[in-house]
Amino acid sequence: MIILEKVSKSFTTEHIETQALNAIDLEIDAGDFIAVTGPSGSGKSTLLNVLGLLEPINSGNYWFEGKNLNALSPNRQQLFRKKNIGFIFQNFNLIDELSVFENIELPLIYQGRERKARHHRVDELMERLGIAHRSSHMPQQLSGGQQQRVAIARALSGQPKIILADEPTGNLDSSIGKEVMLLLRELNAQGATILMVTHSKEHANYAGRLIQMKDGFHLQTQN
Amino acid sequence: MWFHYLLTALRHFKSQLRYQLLNLTGLAIGLTSSLMILTFLMQEISYDKQHPAISYRLDIQFNSLDNSRLAQVAGNMAPYLLQKQLITNALRIHRQSLTVHNRQLVNTLEQVAYTDPSLVDFFKITVQQGSIESVYQKPGSIALTASSAINLFGTAEALQQTFQDHDGNIWTVVAILDELPQETHLQFSAIASIDSLVMIEGNGRLDSWMRNDFYTYVQFTKSPKDSDRKLISDTLAQPLKNIVPQLELEFHLLKTSDIHLNGSSIGEMKFNGSKVQFYLFVAIAIIVLFVALFNYINFATALASKRALEVGVRQISGASKTQLMWQFLLESALFTLFASAIAFLLSALLLPYFGHYLQRELTIYQLLTPTYLALLFTGYLIISVTAGFYPALTLSNLAILSALRGAGLRGRSGRWFQQTLLFLQLVVSIALLIWVGHIALQLKMLQQIPVGYSSSNRLVAMHIDNEFLQQRFAHLQFELKQHSNIISVSAADAIPTEDKALFMQVRRQLRPELKLPNVMVNNIYPDFISTLNIPLLSGRELNIEDMTLTKNGYQRGQEFPVVLNMLAVQALGWSSAEQALGKRLDFSEHPDFSYARSALIVGIVDNYYLTSIHQPMRPQVLVTGMPMLSDASIILHVENDAERFAKSLFEQSWKRVSDKDLPAIELLSSRFRQLHQNDQLNGELTALATAMTVMIVSFGLMGCASYSTQRRLSELAIRKVLGASMTKLVLLLSRQFLFTVTFASLVAIIIAWWLTTNWLSSFSMQVPLNYWLFTMAPLSAIGLVLGITFLSLSLFRQYSLSTLLKREV
């Protein structure tokens, strides 16, 4: 589904160039659950941002279902992201002023879906993730685990082809972290393609494939 | 989607309620003031727009003496212009009072307008009953306004009623008119025809070239060019120059719809508006609106920085830049709508008071016309977009990753923008403070200028039939002087503060080349000079014997006594009061000094202001026993704090000597204040606008400062742990504002200097520039910044250091 060919990304700050990704090659198939690990500064987050079209690449090619994404204009990239990519963050990134229901509904609104269809989809997701009873609550009223479930539901709501998760358990204690990992594995079993960046070896073990990174290089892949 | 935007906007408003309310208050105050001023301005420009055709009023200006410009010209002018075919239509209006004998009652109809039948071609007059045409069919026909009809006949049917005037002429009421609207320069209580004027006083006034007592309006087929105006002026001046070759004068055409704002000639029908005030109001409205808008933009941008994360989340959820832009513009529109609604309600409540203050009737209903509503809606859209554009643009252009990190609007350009807006607001406020300070000082000085007479403890009773007063003055004076509270009693055709005058020609008998064409002559009653405490420089004042002498001898050509003021003495070539005393003058109604009478100078008084202190003092001749105007006014000098008692004494005495209605009694000092109410009003309103501007800017500063504190809470906590004192923290937080306020002060001082010197130059007497104000205004702004920053630190004190260091706020 996704192929990265010799993708490089560097940042220049005050005359110092940092090579965040160094000619990375990577293939992701539909239904994969991949965990990316590595020490701080190894390029994990940059890889995720590149895949999520949040950062442009310096060289190489990014193919998504046969389409070369780095050739697209920023506007087209935004449209592509809207349809195909979902995000989950370490700090959940829910909008404080919107309820659980409204947060999950947000991507559907921007996709221009009908109100009825939106409601149907959000109800279904809340049911599936066990947060239906929290529908009208505001994010501040939820526990960390519940907030992450809402974030996951929001990532799923637009029916993206891939979910990119950046340290989804980083802000959760271990038991709740485990719960979230089980949920992601379950979603993967139901067909979702997931790429997750994590520091935790234990949580990385929930994935089907493990990618280790160091200094912008892709060290090894374990299945 | 729109519903979602609306919901988000409302929730955001709620979540930052304190800041949003501060911001809302600032914008609402700005909009309310602008809306109220706009209502007033719209009314000011609507004067005399309702009439059937465009017309012009003919004014005469005498250049020979002191450029005095009169609102009325002689009765012969209009027919002459028609005869020369320089105009297509003309209308003359002469106003004078009419004594009404109705059964046993005697009333006075003030300001009856004697007009040509062309009145309806010029002005819109609404008739309730009867017809206006009947006024012109037969002399002695009169149309009354509804209130005059009630005054004369009470609730009884007034139409077709008859009454007699003082000379026994029979008058018939042939029409009842609506009251004149507020938006006209016209003022009268009844309409009669010129033929009726001839019926009561003959043709003398109408056939004159020299008696300027007809408001004369003219119409043209197309608007007159400069050459047409000159031709009219020259044509009208010629017959006058044939009579007096050395006369220098010109005629002006003033568009009727411009009279309200531009008419400031002697003898205007009513107290007109002022162009200076109009432009002052325009400036105030613009300044307050802009300061409020800048404030809103600055505040909204500061508040928006907290929404960076939300923007990031929306972007990864699929929002495009356009959608984000729309969302934030809609929020601005909604916010402006709230502020506008508050402003509309506040205006509805405050407009009557504001109107009362400006002596106009102002209501919110004046805003509810389709044109006005369309204008307001356009204004609303412009304000919403102007106010919301910058925050919306900045937010929608945030890079996703920095937005998700909550980096927000901490970029350099954003800060520059905010600082620039704050800078502009501060410049305006500081400059206004300095300027308003000077306005206050100047007004205070003007109030203390010696006017040449005493106005305190003086009561005046106005519009008293002069003929009656000539007969009964001695009796009335005797009656009143019986009371110990009344120090002295006098009267005059024109008392100080009254804008009416008669002009005559005066020359020295022994040196006839030294003359005063068109000098103001005032007929006074005995004790006038002492009653008003006008300094007598030489000789004596006019007494009751002088009055009798002149009354009996004037027609027979006998010499009569006069008193001159110093300006007249100097204009006639004498260098001191003593030199002039005992000299003789030729005195005539005619510019060629035909039928001249001999006058003896028996006294010289110091100059005094005849009306407001804006009108220069003029040469003046005081006579007695020679009533020149139909009305006169009585003046009483009473003991301290005895005004009310003296008023009732006057009422009792009046009833004993007269069967006429009791005249209205006023304080001379309040009439003087009324003359300067525009100065007073302009000063007060500018001060009010400044107070509002300073208040709005303070709100803005308060918001920005507390927001900046909120954002820097953890930094402040770290500094505190490392040993920074509270004073250091205040200085740290205010540093960003202090630079702006200092720079703004420098610019404001230059602007204020220019503004103040320019404004002061329009006065003949000026206060010097006050350097204390130039220093204090910027210092207060700096103090305000420090104070507000200190207050904003209360946010910091709310939390414990450990909470702040964990960044859990």
Structure write-up:
- The complex is a heterodimer of chains A (223) and B (809).
- Chain A is α/β, with parallel strands linked by helices.
- Chain A has one domain (2-222): Rossmann fold (3-Layer(aba) Sandwich).
- Chain A is 35% helix and 28% strand.
- Chain A has helices at 44-51, 74-84, 100-110, 115-129, 144-157, 174-189, 201-204; strands at residues 2-13, 16-28, 33-37, 59-64, 67-68, 85-88, 162-166, 194-197, 209-214, 217-222.
- In chain A, the strands form two sheets. In chain A, strands 6-7-8-3-9-10 form a six-stranded mixed β-sheet, with helices on both faces. In chain A, strands 2-1-4-5 form a four-stranded antiparallel β-sheet, covered by helices on one side.
- Chain A is globular.
- The two termini of chain A are 18 Å apart.
- The model of chain A has no long low-confidence stretch (mean pLDDT 89).
- In chain B, α1 (2-15) crosses α11 (321-358), α9 runs parallel beside α12 (370-396) and α14 packs across α24.
- Chain B contains 27 helices and 23 strands.
- The longest helix of chain B is centred in the middle third of the chain and has 38 residues, at 321-358.
- The model of chain B has no long low-confidence stretch (mean pLDDT 87).
- In chain B, strands 1, 2, 3, 4, 5, 6, 7, 8, 9, 10, 11 and 12 form a twelve-stranded mixed β-sheet that branches. In chain B, strands 15-16-21-18-20-19 form a six-stranded mixed barrel.
- The two termini of chain B are 32 Å apart.
- Chain B folds into three domains: 2-43 and 279-446 and 678-805, no CATH class; 64-247, no CATH class; 458-675, no CATH class.
- Chain A binds chain B through residues 49, 52, 54-55, 75, 78-79, 81-83, 87, 89, 93-98, 102, 106-107, 109-112, 154, 158, and chain B through 1, 4, 7-8, 11-12, 15, 309-310, 312-320, 323, 400-401, 404.
